[in-house]
């Protein structure tokens, strides 16, 4: 550890230990006696030796003392008005470089400021001595900073948040790295150096957030590019990691003259170890899941998740478990007894070891058939109850993936906002139940992922249930399996590989029919591939009865003898030892067959994952947004501990084309009545906002709410679809500034590059985020109407609010709980006076009537989703308040 002794300024000699460099500042007094100082270092001289004298006092100047000693001359030019000479002597394994500085005019000079900079390639022990401590006053001496971790544990857990702390750069008080004068009476007071720290690591694993940005804090928590905390990566075996910290004293001797690099860096070797993982897949089996092959795809998605989990976690931890719960309700109403349970809510695949569940019967009859209504809260409760009942192994991590295609309309637990006459429990109340209070408690590592299928789910509720990045929306059945696969990649530790129709990225598309799909693995230790079968094949010849995987050997594709597992909706190919195939780096081809005939295949039919050496991570600057916000995206690419530069990161966005609020406000009573007649007698009938969305779809003949690419000419502010590595640190960023419509924004990022070993890689990253209406004080309309009432001493004023954003998108109906009305002064709401429920409109307008005595001047304040609108004056003849609005009488 670098250190200076003694630890006080103005000494006549110092020892600088274990330091690559040091810088000393002195104030010299001149008369007819030269000032002398000596720098000592090991003999033979260390590699990279450099000793420089700098006059800080104007007009400045500097001399290379090592070169001057070799020349054996007097330098009278480099520092104006001073003669500088240097000699070198060696003995006993030490070399002394002595410098003399003289004022040839002998006019006498006091407190002239000089700096000596000494450096070598590696850390050595230095000496520094002056001829006279009074006339050669050492006011500051700084060596390399201390660069070491403070209490880094020998074992860390996968997927845990990590905060690390470095030891102080200045070192202990008795053996510091900085010695300086702090009393102006004793000479010039120079500032203490402000160290910068950068945390990093070495090892065969990529860790998001490392290397860290350079900063002045000794403490650092792993974060993404937007400073959101991120956990350590998952691992499949204990993985050694050497954590590093680099410390610099910037500005002392130069921008990075005194550093903690090399042997002064300080390393802490630790191991990231696997944790027991318990996974529960919770599937909506309500009646609406019977449409459009939703249930078939949900079952296939669950099986594929089980396949991948079984492959990647095989033999990792004996306490690993995975299971599948389904939920529906034969009682299509909310109620306060329960919660519901078997046979309508049950674990069709009980929690078991990954290998046992992957090998178990996962055929259609096991999952059952869809029917009944949608008790989302009860289904989630049941799945969590099963996890809690299975126990809490040490350091266990829980993962829950919840899938639904509708808004909740039944059960004994209501997750979403608003009360129901059936008086079900709220989710906050349900979490206190002894059956799940531990697993939902603050000390349990529970990771909840939610997937909404179609247009009917309440995406706001699903998004609020999940953490940032753990919510996904699948607007078509075809994307459901893809989103499930994304949740596997996020919840475990695997790269979702990018599939393509050409062996070489960027080659021309082959002619139809397309029968081959390709992907790359890069230094993979294991990987898995799921290949979908064809649902409802038009002829027996279109049935997919086998698949094949082949590896490019540099000349041709060689079919590998990897036997696929055959499931109801897909085939699965697992490769537990990918290193046997060119050390895990290869281009692979997948084909589907009926007999010997190769059949057409789509990119969406193939899902491939590998473990991580080259890792791509996607981050957004916020979990969710408001209309008018900018979305900032960042993709961090690492090969083990090193940033990957020169990759291509291309974005595709599936965004809402029309705002839901404006569409809902455009419904008329006939539209709603038509929907109620059509769905009135069916099971799983949508309610509330879900019923209104269903009415929109029926009104316009849509299969789903309209979606679009908001700018096919270039998504981002720079007019491109690309993310750029601006700082050369392997973090690719750009900004999307067209959040003009509320709804779900589905991002897909395609990452292609070559690692530092020349191996190509191709990854796909997916993220769903939600934008809500940003209620505008300026754009929201406020209307006052004076109404006629029977009591002549009273006045009634009806106020109508139409909330909207700056893009004229309406908030729409259904937000009555978050539109808050408050009267100042005398007055009462008419519905309160008449003991009636508050008015509720279906056209996006929100109204209240205020009754008050003539001659009084009450005002009204309204808050919409937390935005306080301008004050509204209610008395006739008075200005509207903060902003004038038209007023009519009735």
| First and last CA, distance | 86 Å
Secondary-structure content class = mainly beta
Give the low-pLDDT segments.
262-266, 882-890
Main pleated-sheet profile = 11 strands, antiparallel
Overall shape: globular
Helix content: 10-25%
Q: Can you give the mean pLDDT?
A: 92
Number of E-type strands: 55
Verbal overview:
By secondary structure, the chain is mainly β. A hairpin with a 2-residue loop joins strand 39 and strand 40. Helix 2 runs parallel beside helix 8 and helix 10 crosses helix 11. The longest helix has 20 residues. 45% of the residues are buried. The C terminus is likely disordered.
Short description:
With 890 residues, this protein is mainly β. The protein is built from twelve helices and 55 strands.
Which descriptors would you attach to this protein?
12 helices, mainly beta, single chain, 890 residues, six-stranded mixed sheet
């Amino acid at each position: 550890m670098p250190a200076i002794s003694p630890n006080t300024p103005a000494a006549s000699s110092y020892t600088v230990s274990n330091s690559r460099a040091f810088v000393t500042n002195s104030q010299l007094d001149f008369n007819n006696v030269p000032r002398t100082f000596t720098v000592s270092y090991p003999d033979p001289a260390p590699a990279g030796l450099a000793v420089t004298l700098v006059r800080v006092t104007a007009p400045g100047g500097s001399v290379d003392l090592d070169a001057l000693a070799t020349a054996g001359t007097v330098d009278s030019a480099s520092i104006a008005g001073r003669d500088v000479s240097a000699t070198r002597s060696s003995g006993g394994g030490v070399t002394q470089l002595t410098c003399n500085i003289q004022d040839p005019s002998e006019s006498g000079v006091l407190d002239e400021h000089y700096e000596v900079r000494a450096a070598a390639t590696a850390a050595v022990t230095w000496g520094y001595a002056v001829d006279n401590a009074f006339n050669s006053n050492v006011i500051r001496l700084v060596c390399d900073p201390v660069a070491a971790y403070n209490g880094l544990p020998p074992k860390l857990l996968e997927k845990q948040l990590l905060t690390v702390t470095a030891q102080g750069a200045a070192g202990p008080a008795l053996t510091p790295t900085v010695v300086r004068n702090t009393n102006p009476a004793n000479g010039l007071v120079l500032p203490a150096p402000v160290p910068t720290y950068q945390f990093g690591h070495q090892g065969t694993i990529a860790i998001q957030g490392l290397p860290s940005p350079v900063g002045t804090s000794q403490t650092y928590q792993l974060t993404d590019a937007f400073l959101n905390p991120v956990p350590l990566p998952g691992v499949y075996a204990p993985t050694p990691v050497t954590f590093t910290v680099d410390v610099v004293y910037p500005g002392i001797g130069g921008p990075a003259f005194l550093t903690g690099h090399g042997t002064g860096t300080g390393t802490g070797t630790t191991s990231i170890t696997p944790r027991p993982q318990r996974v529960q897949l919770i599937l909506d089996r309500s009646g609406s899941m019977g449409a459009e092959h939703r249930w078939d795809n949900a079952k296939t998605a669950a099986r594929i998740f089980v396949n991948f989990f079984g492959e990647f976690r095989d033999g990792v931890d004996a306490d690993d478990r995975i299971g599948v719960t389904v939920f529906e309700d034969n009682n299509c109403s909310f109620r306060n007894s329960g919660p519901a349970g078997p046979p309508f809510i049950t674990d069709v695949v009980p929690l078991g070891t990954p290998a046992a569940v992957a090998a178990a019967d996962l055929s259609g009859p096991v999952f059952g058939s869809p029917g009944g209504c949608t008790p989302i809260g009860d289904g989630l409760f049941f799945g969590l109850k099963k996890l809690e009942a299975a126990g809490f192994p040490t350091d266990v991590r829980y993962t829950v993936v919840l899938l639904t295609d509708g808004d909740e309309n039944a059960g004994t637990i209501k997750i979403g906002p608003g009360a129901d006459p059936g008086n079900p429990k709220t989710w906050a109340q349900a979490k206190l139940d002894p059956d799940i209070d531990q697993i939902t408690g603050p000390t349990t590592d529970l990771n909840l992922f939610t997937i909404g299928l179609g247009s009917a789910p309440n995406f706001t509720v699903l998004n609020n249930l999940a953490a940032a990045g753990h919510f996904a929306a699948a607007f078509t059945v075809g994307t459901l399996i893809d989103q499930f696969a994304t949740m596997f990649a996020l919840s475990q530790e695997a790269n979702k590989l990018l599939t393509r129709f050409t062996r070489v990225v960027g080659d021309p598309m082959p002619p139809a029919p397309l029968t081959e799909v390709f992907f790359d693995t890069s230094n993979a230790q294991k990987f898995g591939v799921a290949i979908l079968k064809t649902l409802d094949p038009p002829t027996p010849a279109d049935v997919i009865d086998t698949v094949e995987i082949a590896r490019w050997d540099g000349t041709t594709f060689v079919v590998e003898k990897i036997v696929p597992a055959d499931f109801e909706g897909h085939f699965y190919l697992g490769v537990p030892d990918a290193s046997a195939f060119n050390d895990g780096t290869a281009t692979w081809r997948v084909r589907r067959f009926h007999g010997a005939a190769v059949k057409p295949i789509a990119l969406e039919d193939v899902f491939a994952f590998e473990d991580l050496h080259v890792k791509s991570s996607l981050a957004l600057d916020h979990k969710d947004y408001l209309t008018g916000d900018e979305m900032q995206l960042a993709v961090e690419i690492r090969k083990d501990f090193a940033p990957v530069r020169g990759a291509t990161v291309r974005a595709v966005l599936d965004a809402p084309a029309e705002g839901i609020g404006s569409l809902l406000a455009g419904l008329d009573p006939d539209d709603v009545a038509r929907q109620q007649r059509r769905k009135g007698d069916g099971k799983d009938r949508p309610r509330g906002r879900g019923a209104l969305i269903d009415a929109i779809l029926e009104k316009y003949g849509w299969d789903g709410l309209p979606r679009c690419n908001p700018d096919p000419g270039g998504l981002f502010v720079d007019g491109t679809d690309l993310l750029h590595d601006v700082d050369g640190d392997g973090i690719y960023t750009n900004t999307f500034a067209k959040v003009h419509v509320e709804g779900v924004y589905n991002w897909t990022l395609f990452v292609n590059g070559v690692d530092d070993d020349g191996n190509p890689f191709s990854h796909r990253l997916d993220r769903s985020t939600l934008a809500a209406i940003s209620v505008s004080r300026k754009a929201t309309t406020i209307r006052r109407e004076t109404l006629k009432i029977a009591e002549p001493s009273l006045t009634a004023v009806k106020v109508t609010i139409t909330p909207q954003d700056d893009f004229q998108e309406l908030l729409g109906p259904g937000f009555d709980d978050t539109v808050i009305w408050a009267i100042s002064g005398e007055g009462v709401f008419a519905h309160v006076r008449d003991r009636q429920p508050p008015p509720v409109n279906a056209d996006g307008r929100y109204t209240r009537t205020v009754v008050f005595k003539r001659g009084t001047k009450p005002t009204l304040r309204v808050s919409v989703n937390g935005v306080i609108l301008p004050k509204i004056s209610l008395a006739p003849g008075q200005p509207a308040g903060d902003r004038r609005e038209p007023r009519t009488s009735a």
